[in-house]
Every structure is written in C-alpha cells, then in structure tokens.
UniProtKB/TrEMBL annotation:
Domain Glycosyl hydrolase family 13 catalytic: 22-407
UniProt-recorded name of the protein: Alpha-glucosidase
Annotated keywords: Glycoprotein
Gene Ontology MF annotations: alpha-amylase activity
A Gene Ontology BP annotation from the UniProt entry: oligosaccharide catabolic process
InterPro entries (UniProt xref): GH, GH13_cat_dom, O16G_dom_2
Amino acid sequence: MSGASGIGTVGTEWWRHAVVYQVYVRSFADGDGDGVGDLPGITSRLPYLRDLGVDAVWLTPFYRSPQHDHGYDVADYTDVDPLFGSLSDADDLIATAHDLGLRVIVDLVPNHTSGDHVWFQAALAAEPGSPERARYLFRTGRGTDASEPPNNWRSVFGGPAWTRVGHTDQWYLHLFDTSQPDLDWRNPEVAQMFLDVLRFWLDRSVDGFRVDVAHGLLKEASLRDQRLVGEASDIFEVGGHEDDEPMWDQPEVHDVYRQWHAVLADYDGDRMAVAEAWTTTVEANARYVRSDELHQAFNFDWVMASWSAAAFAAVVTTTLPAMTAVGGAPTWVLSNHDVHRHATRYGGGETGRARARAATLVSLGLPGSAYLYQGEELGLEEVDVAPDDRQDPSWFRTGQPGRDGCRVPMPWSGDHPPYGFGPGTGQPWLPQPDAWASLTVAAQQGVEGSTLEFYRGALAARRSLTDAPSEVSVEVSGDVLTVVRGDLTIVLNCGASPAPLPAGTLVAASGPVGEDLPADTAVWLTPTG
Ligand code: NOJ
C-alpha cells in the first residue's frame, strides 16, 4: 500500500473539482450547414452538455484566423472568425451557458500569432532591427550567405523551426507551422497586448482560459543550439522529452503568469486559467499552478500512461504530492484534440472501449478536476482519415498521419453522414465513418449499457464526491489498481481475467459486473450498511 496524500481540492473555487468538457469548435455542431462547426451550433447543443452533467465547457480557438492550424494561428484575438460566427454569437453562447449553469473557458494562444496578424505583416514589411520585427524572433542566418537557420531547433510539426524571409539574411522562429511565428515575450509590447486580450474576454464574462503552449513563451535568451540526444522526433510532442530544451519551460515564463494571476483575481467569480505545459517532470508542471500563477495544468502523464495498473498508480502517486506541495488541484485528462482517442490507445474495438470507460471512471473518482474530450462519451475511436482528406499541418510537414483522426465531427443522430452534425447534406469537413450510425447521441440516449448512459451515470455519481477527502491511498496487486479515498474505493482490473470484487455497495461500474470484477472494468464501492 502506498499513500499519496492530499491535494488542494480544499477550497471552494469551482475549478478545483470541475468536470470540463472540451469542445473542438470545428467539429462539435454546425449551425449553418457549411460542414464546419460554429458557435451557434454549439449554443444549440449546450442543453446536451448540461444533461450530460459536466460543469464547464472549454472551447478551442474561434478567433479570426486563416485556419492553417485550425484556429491555433490567430490573426485577431478579439474577434470571431466569420467561419464560426460573430462576437454577438460568442456573447450568446456565454450567456446561454451561464443560464444553464455551465462555465465557459476559452483558448488563449500567446506563444505565436498567425502570419496574417497585423503585427507579423508589419514585421515583414519593416527593416531588420525595427520595432516591428522586435515583436517576433527574427535572427540572421548562419553560414557565409546566411542560408542556414540561426540554430538547430526543430518545429513540433516537423522540419526546421526557422523560415527565411525571402532571400534576405533574416529568418524567423516558429516552433510550430511556418504560418505561426513565435512572439518575443521579452518585448513589453507583447506582454501588454495579452493583458488587454485577457481583459477583453473577461469583460465578456468568460470564466477562464486554456493557455496554449504555456511552457513555451520564453526561450533561453541566447537562442543557442539544442543539445540533441539521438534522433530528433517528428512525432507530435510539445517538448518535455529532451534533456536539453532551451525553447521550453524557462524560469522567466512564470513572471508572465504572476501578472495574469493578478488580472484574473481582479474579477469576481473565481476566474481561472489552465496550462497546456508539457514538462519533463511533474514538479516542473506543478510550478505553473503555484498559488500566485495559473490555477491548473493538464496532467499529460495521465494521458501517456499505458493500460496497466502500475502505470496508472505511478501517475497518481507522483501527481498528488507534487500538487500538494504547491496547493494546486490536479487534473485528470485521457483525451484531447492532439492525441489518439483513449479507446484506440487502449487497443480499440470493444476491448478498447471497455478499457476507456474503466479509465474514465477512475479519473472521475480521483480528487481534483477532470477534462473530457467531445465524443469520448460516445465511445468514439480514432478515425483512419484518408490521406487526401487530412488537414493537420503536421501531416503536410512530416507525412505522418497527424491529429485529424480525433477531430472528426460529432455524430448526433441519423444513419448516415453528417449524422445530425448540421443541416447540410453529405460529409462535413472531415468525413465521418459509416460505422458511426450506431454511436450517435440519439442511438445511445436512454439505452442501458451504452457509453453515453455510462458517462451520465458516472458524472451523476461524482456529484456526491464533492466533499470527499483529497487524500488517497493507492495499491497495486498484480493487474488490479485500488484507490481508497475516504469512503470511496475505486478498483480497476487491467488484467485479462476476472479479479475478486471487494465487499461493498456498488456505486458505479464501467461495465457489467457479477460476483467478480471482469477484465477491463472499474467500479466504485462504498461500505455496505
Ligand atoms: C497545442 C494545441 O493543442 C495544438 O492543437 C496546436 O497545434 C499547438 N498547440 C500550436 O498552437
């Protein structure tokens, strides 16, 4: 038995124990029938999320953007892209969500702008060394004719992280696509612009921000070469995997978040921010949620854990003390728009789906906050998107399949595409598979044993845990993980055969349970009597 003690779930702020549902804006609901999701579509489906039982919605970027990285390339941070609607549609969405008791978290993309942003266009038109260029990271190339990049950094999407400006000596840094130039956060103008952006959306009543690439804003000032061990990776990993990372997780980035904390604290209602920070250690991750910085950070170790009791136990027992040390609340994340869906990661098919439900039940029982990704409540799996249909910029840069497979639009009803995604006919922006007819919301609603009804039941059961203690003890016995949290016992069987079911009253189960705990199944138990 190993103890893993308490975390900062003590405290009344809503986000410490919230279940947040991630809406990938292009793919949730299409209001106007153009095959791409939009804000009015999302607003029309908010009652579904209220009925599902989540507390908050995180919307991926819907700002003006040429959409080279589907909105993570922002051309105007204070306007809505016409593809998704208008500012008044955003206001309607926020107001409707609040009326339904749902909080709204919007995405903030501070590491880079779009190449179409007025600042970058001005920078390209200006001279080297000008104030316009000083908002970004322009540097002189190496080699006698400056034809080599200024350093050896690689883009997360593959290939060099630098693009040359025409035939000049100058190159600009982009840790992602060439259309996403990195800002220079040592320039006070940049910091000021984002303080204004925060206030713009806070004034429009958003409850929080998801901070894109939160660990990337500051680079080591010299922009020196990275010491690489082994082959550079072309797989989507936003840092946190090399020993030497002069582009990620620099100490000065925390000054930015101290400033942001003060801005958020100026507003009522416990406004918050959650960091997308890929770090090498859990302690480094926890630094983003110190009491005067951001409020949460995604727990990517939980995403990365393999299907094994020992792997899950290791993440729980490292996450909780690290968060306790800084008074932060942990998060539990299994899927998002950048990774393969967890049903597929755990093996796919019926087995993968059963395991995914089981892992979800464990997540929902742990102290802290949980993040769900749209469609996981339907048991959706990664789609094998045909090469001609792929749209992820990393596919164009690396030839690797990329992230389109988890971004295929939601199936709501009907027996053929677009499955009620919108009023249009035919396939939406990424084609939906035929096999989804049996996985639509309509097909699962009210059906006992469906994944959707499992999520509803588990989220309802979770509501009784609000006062549960934040201390847990964790035990691994063979393939079985047991987590005890006050009166709640969570048991997960990662093995291939049934395991003994401990005594107690069954509060929730991820699948059918008899006298034993079947393989690939999790339960919540409370003491009987
Ligand atoms: C992380 C986002 O989640 C991902 O979708 C995006 O491509 C990169 N940041 C760049 O903004």
